[in-house]
Amino acid sequence: MVNATLSKNMGGTTTSQIGAGATCIDNLPFTPVAALATQRNFSFGGEVDVGVAADNVGACPAGTDARVQSYNSSGTIVDRKVLVVFWG
Questions:
Q1: With the C-alpha atoms ordered 23, 29, 35, 36, is the resulting torsion angle positive or negative?
Q2: What domain range is 32 assigned to?
Q3: Averaged pLDDT in 10-residue chunks for the chain of 88 residues
Q4: Number of domains forming the structure of the chain
């Protein structure tokens, strides 16, 4: 889900959760060339991975702009609130 109060230039962007901790991001108003993601609360441990279309592998449909996956400290994919920054 895109939080409009924390977002800039994200109008029309759609997100779809494709499983625990895995989200596809599409319809960005620009073509992303890089992305950076982080957890909103570091006390949980774990990590966040993000990839843009050129690196977009996995369960997201072809043509998806980006994907984000979050993991707990044991390496299991889990839901986390994350912040993502894109460069286009």
A1: negative
A2: 4-87
A3: 79 86 90 88 77 71 88 89 88
A4: 1
